[in-house]
UniProtKB/TrEMBL annotation:
A Pfam family hit: RsgA_GTPase
Database matches in Gene3D superfamilies: P-loop containing nucleotide triphosphate hydrolases (3.40.50.300), Probable gtpase engc, domain 3 (1.10.40.50)
Domain EngC GTPase: 119-264
Species per Swiss-Prot/TrEMBL record: Streptomyces griseicoloratus
Protein name per UniProt: Small ribosomal subunit biogenesis GTPase RsgA
């Protein structure tokens, strides 16, 4: 009888990784075809590590190098269908189930393609270190990514023990995170960890730059030092990339934790809805602007500019909103240009093939 091989025993079931009735329903056609459900816990080029009820297996991703769209490449958090194999062979990833949510940023290569950081995430924990100067623009970027993913963002202020004025810092971050819980934690004192655990649900991804304390926070949630941590440079508060890849780990109280490497670049990719939710107060005021296409620069009757002049909205907040809108629009235009170029390349290939066919026919006696 065929079976999955190359697995090692584990104390978890697929249910511990988030498998539920909705997953079972979506997987029904694949199960009828004799395939086996799994969840990707770590993805690499050409292969992935996936968890099944039989254990963790190394599976091949056929045609990984030929994926035209990086968004379709299997990533950590994906539910997949594996084809069982005979003894000694490597399982093959046959299909990726439709993603409920996806955390996407612009690719690190600065192309017009997006990169999926995590799939099927329920809660995005945006980590902000209180041991370094607050960078609200970066927090807004991460929140836009989180909202756009379809998951629920939570901002966690780490290293509270290293901050002289925690209430002020919390108030500042709360102003740039409307509709989002902003929690204060300290791995040294244990502050806020119970509150954080109570608000987390489902698959939880830790998002933030190196040195923000993601892995340390993750170890606190796991109750063990399972995730690698490293020291932070005192000169600039930056950390080294101690997390080299994304992987899933079940939480002791239920749910799944996904730790990610620190993000040096947080480019937006098709994040219009996420920006609207991140800057919800500006979007609300914009409804009262005289012109429906108001850019909030110098237009008469601009409700947003009036709020800035009255001190209701900080000028920095409006500048950040307009800057991120421009960046997102530019990324979208590049994507459209790439799609047009791809379609044109296909058209040219067809034309060349037809011309070659006609020339061949003309040479026939």
């Amino acid at each position: 009888m065929s079976q999955l091989l190359s697995h090692h025993a584990q104390p978890y079931s697929l249910g511990d990784y988030g498998w539920d009735e909705a997953c079972e329903h979506a997987f029904a056609p694949h199960r009828a075809a004799g395939l086996i459900p799994a969840r990707v816990v770590r993805a690499e080029r050409g292969s992935c590590e996936a968890v099944t009820d039989a254990g963790t297996v190394r599976a091949e991703i056929p045609g990984a190098a030929d994926h035209g769209d990086p968004l379709s490449v299997p990533c950590t958090g994906d539910w997949v269908a594996l084809r069982p194999v005979a003894t000694g062979a490597v399982p093959v990833l046959h299909a990726v189930l439709e993603r409920r949510t996806a955390l996407v940023r612009s690719s690190a290569s600065r192309t017009s393609c997006g990169q999926v950081l995590a799939a099927n995430v329920d809660t995005v924990v945006v980590t902000v270190s209180l041991a370094a100067p607050l960078k609200h623009g970066r927090t807004e970027r991460m929140l836009a990514l989180a909202w756009e993913s379809g998951a629920q963002p939570v901002v966690v202020l780490t290293k509270a023990d290293a901050c002289a004025d925690v209430p002020s810092a919390q108030a500042q971050v709360s102003e740039v995170a409307p509709g989002v819980d902003v929690l204060v934690t300290s791995a040294v004192t244990g502050q806020g960890l119970d509150t954080l655990t109570a608000v987390l649900s489902g698959t939880v991804v830790l998002l933030g730059p190196s040195g923000a304390g993601k892995s340390t926070l993750g170890n606190q949630l796991l109750g063990e030092d399972r995730l690698a941590t490293g020291a932070v440079r005192e000169a600039d508060g930056k950390g080294r990339h101690t997390t080299a890849w994304r992987e899933l780990v079940p939480l002791p109280g239920g749910g799944v934790l996904l730790d990610t490497p620190g993000l040096r670049a947080i480019g937006l990719h098709d994040a219009q809805d996420g920006l609207e939710q991140t800057f919800a107060e500006i979007e609300h005021l914009a409804q009262d602007c005289r012109f429906t296409d108001c850019a909030h620069v110098s237009e008469p009757g601009c409700a947003v500019l009036s709020a800035v002049e009255a001190g209701v909205i900080p000028r920095r907040r409006l500048d950040s909103y307009r800057r991120l809108l421009r960046e997102n629009a530019y990324a979208a235009s590049r994507t459209d240009a790439r799609l047009r170029a791809d379609r044109e390349a296909v058209r040219k290939d067809i034309t060349r093939h037809l011309r070659a066919t006609y020339r061949f026919r003309e040479r026939q006696p």
